[in-house]
Write a structure and sequence with these properties.
There is one protein chain. Helices cover 40% and strands 18% of the residues. It is of the alpha/beta class. The strands form two sheets. A five-stranded parallel beta sheet has the order 3-2-1-4-5, sandwiched between helices. Strands 6, 7, 8, 9 and 10 form a five-stranded mixed beta sheet that branches. A hairpin with a 2-residue loop joins strand 7 and strand 8. Helix 1 packs across helix 2. It starts with 15 loop residues before the first helix and ends in a 13-residue tail after the last strand. Bound molecules: xanthosine-5'-monophosphate. The site of xanthosine-5'-monophosphate has 10 residues, from loops.
Length: 327
């Protein structure tokens, strides 16, 4: 099979009309490629896989099966949003797998960052493969590959996340309907497909999820603290009009405690670190100047609403020498 490349003359898709033209053309192409066969898609809820799902639902409806694996490391409200948008609103064939216990049991006591990433990645493939084996007659695997993935793997910057990870008995033909698009174009197409703005404009979120924002061995209570603090941060950034402006912002709760006072008594609790950065390519990043009043509000809400956190810190370190994520 000849893999599709972005034509040099291709116009940037930056209007709803251009997005609609792309969608119409792709639907035709997808119907031709797939015929009456079946497609499987790992739907994370990120921009790329969500747009691929919405395109495939328009093109082939119930011939698509989406699998959403909740590894327990997603942000607050994310699995619920995937179910609401795809199963309830778009009537997709959606298999929801809550694999939280499986992931957290495997991760218990593991503090090495690379080991944690390996466990999360490996377990994800295992869970997805188990679901795939339960299904009959799947010919194609949908993938949210986008054009920068191809360019970066050609330049040797990062290995393209292709189907190579699946076991031998599960080899499918690929369907990559946003392969020739840049990220901003994927967002434009997603909007034209009716996906909610919170999904289309989602900030980057790493595959290992909150697992890399819980440095050290992950525990359920610290994971819950990072998830709650992240939800507060997102809410306050949205209220302050920063949501679409700051490239990436999140919280980190390391395995470290310090002394504090609560209700007149001594407590020994975690510190929550806030990170907010701007970048164009994630290779380097600068730190956002958060208004002091917003910072005070965040400190007040996080220390009063998040169980087990008595201190809030702001990370002023650019990339380099710090990376954006902590692990
Ligand atoms: P770092 O921490 O390397 O992150 O400065 C750069 C950007 O990449 C994101 N990131 C990941 N994205 N899988 C992903 O899909 C990953 O394993 C992963 N690790 C980091 C990070 O959030 C930032 O946007």
């Amino acid at each position: 099979m000849v893999l599709e490349s972005r034509p040099e003359s291709m116009q940037r898709i930056n209007t709803p009309a251009l997005a609609k033209a792309y969608i119409d053309e792709r639907i035709e192409m997808l119907r031709e490629q797939i015929g009456d066969k079946k497609v499987l898609l790992a739907l994370s809820g990120g921009v790329d896989s969500s747009v691929v799902a919405a395109l495939l639902i328009r093109a082939i409806g119930k011939q698509l099966t989406c699998v959403h694996v909740n590894h327990g490391l997603l942000r607050k409200g994310e699995p619920e949003q995937v179910i609401r948008v795809f199963r309830d609103e778009m009537a997709a064939n959606l298999i929801y797998v809550d694999a939280t216990d499986r992931f957290l049991d495997k991760l218990a006591g593991v503090s090495d960052p690379e080991q944690k990433r390996k466990i999360i990645g490996g377990e994800f493939i295992d869970v997805f493969a188990e679901e795939a084996r339960k299904l009959d007659g799947i010919t194609f695997l949908g993938q949210g590959t986008i054009w920068p993935d191809i360019l970066e793997s050609e330049r040797g910057i990062k290995a393209h996340h292709n189907a190579g990870g699946l076991p031998e008995d599960l080899q499918f033909e690929l369907v990559e309907p946003v392969r020739i698009l840049f990220k901003d174009e994927v967002r434009e197409v997603g909007r034209a497909l009716g996906l909610p703005e919170s999904m289309v404009n989602r900030q980057p979120f790493p595959g290992p999820g909150l697992g890399v924002r819980c440095p050290g061995a992950i525990t359920r209570d610290r994971l819950e603290a990072v998830r709650e603090a992240d939800a507060i941060l997102r809410e306050e950034f949205a209220a302050a009009g920063l949501a679409g402006k700051v490239w990436q912002y999140f919280t980190v709760v390391p395995d470290f405690k310090s002394t504090g006072i609560r209700d007149g008594k001594r407590v020994f609790e975690w510190a929550c670190i806030i990170r907010a950065v701007n970048t164009t390519d994630a290779m380097s990043a600068t730190v956002e100047e958060i208004p002091f009043a917003l910072m005070q509000k965040l400190v007040s809400r996080i220390t009063s609403e998040v169980k087990g956190v008595n201190r809030v810190l702001y990370d002023f370190t650019p990339k380099p020498c710090a990376t954006i994520e902590y692990e």
